[in-house]
Amino acid sequence: MQNVSGSSAPVRGVLLDLGGVVYVGDTPIGGALSAVARLREAELPLRFVTNTTRRSRRQVIADLQRMGLRISDDELLTPASMARAFLQKHQLSPFLVVHPELVEDFAGLASGHPEAVIIGDAGDCFTYERLNRAYRKITEGAVLLALAMNRNFKDADGELSLDAGPFVAALEYASKRKAVLLGKPSAEFYQLAVASLGSNGDDLVMVGDDAEADVSGAISAGLRGVLVRTGKYRAGDESALPSAPDCIADSLNNAVDWILQRHQSFE
Amino acid sequence: MQNVSGSSAPVRGVLLDLGGVVYVGDTPIGGALSAVARLREAELPLRFVTNTTRRSRRQVIADLQRMGLRISDDELLTPASMARAFLQKHQLSPFLVVHPELVEDFAGLASGHPEAVIIGDAGDCFTYERLNRAYRKITEGAVLLALAMNRNFKDADGELSLDAGPFVAALEYASKRKAVLLGKPSAEFYQLAVASLGSNGDDLVMVGDDAEADVSGAISAGLRGVLVRTGKYRAGDESALPSAPDCIADSLNNAVDWILQRHQSFE
């Protein structure tokens, strides 16, 4: 474990990424469940902030419960929830390029409004036909909403696979238009998490395995960022960041050691 | 017809784009065949330079013949021919993400070399599975070769559809690597065309419907560029170019009027 910046402010809340930090595929990462339990015992408020768009909110909560981790509905923040709020605010109807499992998170929205194209990690549903329909809608004026810009994720076979970001980049290139980013590392996403904890951010720590979306995004939003060497982490991921992570930890368990030192010392 | 820059140098050879200039789908554009015939009568050497990667060289020549236009093999320049030469020069084996019709242009190459990922306009063959395999190869060190970076093309239904460029952009974003571009507007592509006409470029005119790949690319390579208002052309396409087209013509027929004025006046 490496404490890079040596920040000494008290920690009053923690944001945790899920995939690659708490679990990979459908298996908890060693020590992760007890690490979360230690945060709960210390009564640190938690938010689980995920860019995963292959599962609905309902499924994410059920998956975690099946793995032995109970979280409440208001502890979970997903890009789909933000997209839903965006559509309602701007009176838009969704044209979805997302995984079938995510569709339920967009149920019941008004139809007949101007359309917004919504890109998630659609996996095998990224077909030419669907992307081409999305492209034509964008050229006709539809807003392009990116649930995430992640380049890749650690797939069930242990290898990196293409996430939503590359397909958003494809549509941006084709249309010469810029997507509105809703997930990490957008400032709006972190602001929502920070506000939901009644904080201004400087007493919060974000833990993630994605150097850009998790760590750099959180630091840009005024939080501290801890990078874990699990999940998609590859040696040197941190070297290209504009600011160094506050801590680089071998796992969530080690990250929690670091967090609790900075919490307990101020109680 | 609008002569923008008023260049007065003699024209000694012509490069013609095919899709959107000579034909759309499988139908010649009105006046295009007789316009080519007028260039032939004026004994102007011609090269047909296409970024189309949905048809093999053999098929392109057969398609043109079926439409009533005979061209010889050495008059046709395609990105696939350049890719083949690149693979042979660098001793690479191809991993193809291309339309099934294009595969024959890569037949007979040595296997077992390090791989290069080759992206053409694969249409419905742009599947997540294929793009993901390509991505993994690039992360393992394979070179990324783009047969073209075109954003779109005018499809058989008259609408714009996604071309190869967006999918190259997707893999560039995912891998943080830059593709080697083989088709228009790469300088190498135009240099090959210019050399095959025994010219240094300043006496050649390129005619195309793609403001960036055809007109801007040709001007950057030292040729004159004529933009035609057929095919994928949309009003204002020329406004974002770094240098104005030498001529904007309603069709190939009008473009040939402009060319012949600049040819005959120096004979």
Keywords:
homodimer; 267 residues; four-stranded parallel sheet; 8 helices; 15 strands; 34% helix; 19% strand
The helix content of chain A is 25-40%
As a whole number of angstroms, the C-alpha radius of gyration of chain A is: 18 Å
Q: Which spans of chain A have pLDDT < 50 for at least 5 consecutive residues?
A: 2-6
Q: Please tell me the overall pLDDT of chain A.
A: 93
H and E order of chain A? EEEEHEHEHEEHEEEHEHEHEEH
Question: What would your notes on this structure say?
Answer:
Two copies of one chain form a homodimer. By secondary structure, chain A is α/β, with parallel strands linked by helices. Chain A is built from eight helices and 15 strands. Chain A has helices at residues 32-41, 57-67, 79-90, 128-139, 164-175, 187-196, 211-220, 252-264; strands spanning 2-3, 13-16, 23-24, 27-28, 46-49, 76-77, 93-97, 115-119, 143-146, 152-154, 160-162, 180-181, 204-208, 224-228, 247-249. In chain A, the strands form four sheets. Chain A has a seven-stranded mixed beta sheet, with helices on both faces. In chain A, β5, α2 and β6 form a beta-alpha-beta unit. The longest helix of chain A is centred in the last third of the chain and has 13 residues, at 252-264. Chains A and B meet through α4, β11 and α5 of A and α4, β11 and α5 of B.
